[in-house]
Amino acid sequence: MLNPEILEKWDKEYFWHPFTQMKVYREEENLIFERGEGIYLYDIKGRKFIDAISSLWCNVHGHNHPKLNKALEDQLKKVAHTTTLGSSNVPAILLAKRLVDISPEGLTKVFYSEDGAEAVEIAIKLSYQYWRNKGEKRRVFITLSEAYHGDTLGSVSLGGIDLFHGTYKDLLFETLKLPSPYLFCKERYGKLCEECKEELLNMLEELLKSRDDIVAVSLEAGIQGAAGMLPFPRGFLRGVRELTQRYGVLMIVDEVATGFGRTGSMFYCEQEGVSPDFMCLGKGITGGYLPLAATLTTEEVFNAFLGEFGELKHFYHGHTYTGNNLACAVALANLEVFEEEKTLEKLKIKIEHLSQRLEEFWELSHVGDVRQLGFMVGIELVKDKKSGEKFPYGERTGFKVAYKCRERGVFLRPLGDVMVLMPPLVIDIEELDYVIDTLKWAIESL
Questions:
Q1: Among 314, 340, 366, where does a domain finish?
Q2: pLDDT tens digits, residue range 245-266?
C-alpha cells in the first residue's frame, strides 16, 4: 500500500473534486477512504467513521454486503458489460421487469442511464419528443423554485438553486417556476398546512389553464433534498397529479434521492397514491454500489415512439454503459435484500425514534429549523435563532460542525449550513443515537 502522505499529496495535486472549492480543500486535512464494513468507513490511516450520509445518500444496506458482493462477483465471471444498443443482456431484462413490478401502477417501461441527472435528462427529452411525435409543438416545463434535479444542462434548467447553477443561466431553456412549497408555507403561515397547499395548487391550475404549450410538470418526490431538506405539505404531490391529468399535461417525479426506502416506503409516490408519467430513479438503486439510474414511463408514452424506421419517431438517445450488466446484477440483489432482511418493516421504528430524538435540536441556540421526511433530515444552523439571521456563507459553519463530528468518528457532508442526516437504512438505534449525540455535541461545541 502507498504511504498515506503520498496519497494525500497526489489527491490534492491531481484529483479535482465535485462541489468542492479546491483552494480550501488543498489547505485542509481530508479523509481518504480505503474500505467499508456495514455502516462504517475506514480511512487510509485506519480511522473508523459512521457513514451518516450514506456516501451521498445512496448506500442502503451498508458497505461490503455479502449478497451484493456475491452478485457482483458472479456477474463478473460471466461478462462485465455488453451494449444494449440493439441488443440486450440478462440482468438488464430481469431488473426492468422487477422495477415495473414494484413501481406505481401504469409505469411499464424502463430506460437505463448511469446517474440521477441523466434519468431526469431522459425524462425531459422523452416528454418533449412525445408531444412532437403526436404532432404538438409544446416547449415549456413547469417546475419549482429551489428544485434540484442534477447538473446536466437539461436537469439544471428544471432546477432552481442559483448558488449551484446561476453561472449557467444563459445556457438553459426557459421554465415556469412555482414557489418552493416549504418556503412558501413558512413565509405565509409559519408551517406546512392545507391553506398553502391549496394556494400553490391554485397557482398551478391557473398556469395550466392559461397555456397550451406545457410539456410537463416536474418536481421532486415529497421533499426538496439539495435545497436543504424542504418537505412538501402532505398531499401536494397528489394534488399536482390530479391537475396534470385534468389538463392533459405530463408529470415527471424525481425519486432519485427519495427512492429505495429513504422516506419509509420503497418510493414516496406510494404514500400519496401517485402514478406519474415519468419516475426517475438512481442513488439507492444498486444499494450504493455502482452508478445506475432508470427512467420509468407508461405505455402511452412508449407507444408514441413506435413507427416505421423511416418515420424517425424513435428515441435517439443512449449511453455507452446503458443497462450495464454488473450494475443491473447488483441492483437485482439489492431488491432481494430489501425482501430478505425486511428492510422497510424494520425502518418504521427507526424513523419514529429519529423523530423523537430530533425534537432535542430545537433546544439548541443556533438551530433555526429541523426538517424530516422518513430517514431524510435537515437541521438548519442560524446565527440568531430569534431573527433567523444566517451565518455568512464564507464562514462555512456547517463544514466546521461536520469536521468537529469527525473527532468522534461520524462522517457528515452538510448542505451549506444545513446539517444533513441520512444514514444507511440498516443503522441500528444505538448507532443512530450515537450519531445524534455527536451532532448535538458538535453544534454546542462550536
A1: 340
A2: 999 999 999 999 999 999 999 9
Q: Which three cell numbers stand for residue 171?
A: 445556457
* Half-sphere exposure for 379 (CA within 13 Å, toward CB): 29
DSSP letter, residue 415: B
CATH number, position 199: 3.40.640.10
The CATH number of the domain holding residue 37 is 3.90.1150.10
Domain co-membership, 336 together with 351: no
- Can you give the residue range of the structural domain that contains 127? 70-340
Report which residue type is found at 385.
K
Express the helix, strand and coil content of the chain in percent, nearest 5 each: 45, 15, 40
Count CB-CB contacts under 10 A for residue 85: 9
Query: Would you say residue 156 lies in a domain?
Result: yes
110 and 210 inside one domain: yes
pTM of the model: 0.97
Q: Is there a contact between 411 and 424 (Cβ–Cβ < 8 Å)?
A: no
**What's the whole-number mean pLDDT along residues 82-92?**
98
Q: Does residue 218 lie within any of the structural domains?
A: yes
- Interval 166-214: pLDDT, tens: 999 999 999 999 999 999 998 888 888 889 999 999 999 999 999 999 9
Cell digits of residue 392: 455568512
* DSSP, residue by residue, 267-310: SGGGGGT---SEEEE-GGGGTTSS--EEEEEEHHHHHTT-S-GG
273 pLDDT higher than 90: yes
261 and 383: one domain?
A: no
CA proximity to 134, closest of 310, 297, 305:
305
CA distances from 10 to 3, 17, 30, 55, 189 (A): 11, 13, 12, 22, 52
Question: Same domain for 76 and 126?
Answer: yes
Written as one string, the DSSP assignment of 332-350 is HHHHHHHHHTTHHHHHHHH
Q: Using pLDDT thresholds of 50, 70 and 90, give the confidence band for residue 419.
A: very high
Could you say which of 303, 325, 340 is where a domain stops? 340
The dihedrals phi and psi of 89, each to the nearest 5 degrees, come to -145, 160
Tell me which DSSP letter residue 19 carries. T
Q: What is the mean pLDDT of residues 100-124?
A: 98
pLDDT (tens digit, 9 = 90+) per residue, 334-352?
999 999 999 999 999 999 9
